Amino acid sequence: MSQQVNYDDVEVGTELPVVSYPVTRLSLVKYCGASGDFNVIHWNERIAKAVGLPDVIAHGMFTMAQAGRFVTDWAGDRGTVTEFGVRFSAMVVVPDDDKGATIEVSGTVEEKLPDRKVALALTARWADAKVLTRARAVVKLP
Question: What pTM does this model have?
Answer without folding.
Answer: 0.94
